[in-house]
Structure formats: structure tokens, C-alpha cells
Write a structure and sequence with these properties.
alpha+beta, 2 domains, five-stranded antiparallel sheet, 4 helices
Length: about 120
């Protein structure tokens, strides 16, 4: 699942059992929430400390999503529900730049580039 939010861009997939090694089976009760920028996960943790503070951001060098947190699927479901409840804007791309400041401008520009490629 890809999720573009004002807090950042996230890719959530089922984690693997144990330490998450590739040779382990998928754990359908636990998710790996990945981000390309650590600041995106930090913003998410800052907004939802009651849900995400127990989970540490881990770094995996040499991967396309270098920053990850591992959470129960029920926790991620609650985070996504609250993100929906937080919506108070009518233009997502403008909200990204407003919410995240200078770094948000780069995020906003990347959103525009993605849209332009499909035209």
C-alpha cells in the first residue's frame, strides 16, 4: 500500500516473521511501514505518539526505502483512520508544502512531477 499524506509518503507491506529476513514467511499481523526519508516517519510518529512511540525507526542501507518501522496491523489501521479524520484541506499538494515547510516543497514538487509523467 502506498500512502501519500501531509506527513510524508509511506509504503506499507506485510513484514516477515522473526527478524524479517527474506527467507522467512510473511507475518500477516505485522506491517513494515517504509519511507524514503526519515523525516516522514518522524513526522508520523510526532503526530501519533500514543500509537507509534513504542516503535523505533530502523535504517536499512542500500534499499529503496531506507527507513522503516514495524507495527501491528491494528496499529497501522488506527493511524490511517486518524489521518482520514485529520483531513481539513481541499488541495493536497498545497497542504504538503504548507505543513512540511521547506522539505515539504520538495515533496510537493515530486508529487507534481509524478502527475505530469502520466499526461
Amino acid at each position: 500500500m502506498w500512502l501519500f499524506t501531509k506527513y510524508g509518503f509511506f509504503s506499507a507491506v506485510c513484514a516477515r516473521q522473526g527478524k524479517g529476513d527474506y527467507d522467512q514467511p510473511v507475518d500477516t499481523d505485522r506491517l513494515m511501514v517504509r519511507a524514503r526519508l526519515k523525516s516522514h516517519l518522524e513526522a508520523l510518529k510526532q503526530r501519533f505518539p500514543d500509537l507509534l512511540s513504542p516503535y523505533e525507526i530502523q535504517q536499512f542501507s542500500g534499499t529503496d526505502y531506507a527507513f522503516r518501522i514495524f507495527v501491528p496491523k491494528t496499529v497501522w489501521s488506527e493511524v490511517v483512520t486518524q489521518i482520514i479524520q485529520d483531513m481539513d484541506y481541499d488541495n493536497f499538494q498545497s497542504e504538503v508544502a504548507h505543513y512540511q515547510g521547506r522539505e515539504g516543497i520538495a515533496y510537493e514538487h515530486s508529487l507534481h512531477r509524478s502527475i505530469m509523467r502520466e499526461k
